[in-house]
Design brief:
Transmembrane segments: 6-24, 45-78, 84-111
Keywords: Membrane, Transmembrane, Transmembrane helix
Protein name: Multipass membrane protein
Strand order of the largest sheet: 1-2
Number of helices: 4
Number of domains: 1
Structural class: mainly alpha
Largest sheet: 2 strands, antiparallel
Helix content: over 70%
Order of helices and strands: HHHHEE
Organism: Cuniculiplasma divulgatum
């Protein structure tokens, strides 16, 4: 497993699981803290790795949240604000009609540009062998 997979998938998932486990079982975090100070090497390593997973996963989740907020802000500035001003100018009825027309045009464009034409060619090698090539 690559380090990128650890930071993007494993640590955030484990952090969420451990945080939820802490909510469901109130003795979870005190138990980890008790393991950490117990003096038993295996339990100390287990508790330390659990705290490390939660800290790293939490940092990654906070990073994802900040990036998502930045994307939401950019989207609202460049898309939602002009749409709101258009709504103020046209009113609700004409804004809905304009949105339906623009949506239909976009849908037709996507359907027309994404259609696939299948061409069929028959290749005859001998009397008993014919290959049909479709692309």
């Amino acid at each position: 497993m690559e380090a990128e997979d650890l930071f993007t998938e494993v640590f955030p998932a484990m952090a969420l699981i451990m945080i939820i486990a802490g909510f469901l079982d109130p003795t979870f975090w005190p138990m980890l803290l008790q393991w950490l100070v117990s003096g038993k090497a295996f339990l100390m390593v287990l508790a330390a790795s659990a705290f490390l997973i939660v800290i790293v996963g939490g940092v990654v989740l906070i990073y994802y949240a900040i990036v998502a907020l930045i994307f939401i802000a950019i989207f609202s500035i460049f898309v939602l604000a002009p749409l709101y001003f258009l709504y103020l100018v046209l009113g609700l009825t004409y804004s809905v009609i304009l949105g339906a027309v623009v949506g239909a045009v976009i849908l037709l464009y996507l359907v027309e540009t994404r259609t696939v034409r299948i061409e069929q060619h028959t290749i005859t090698l001998s009397v008993h062998r014919k290959y049909i090539v479709k692309r």
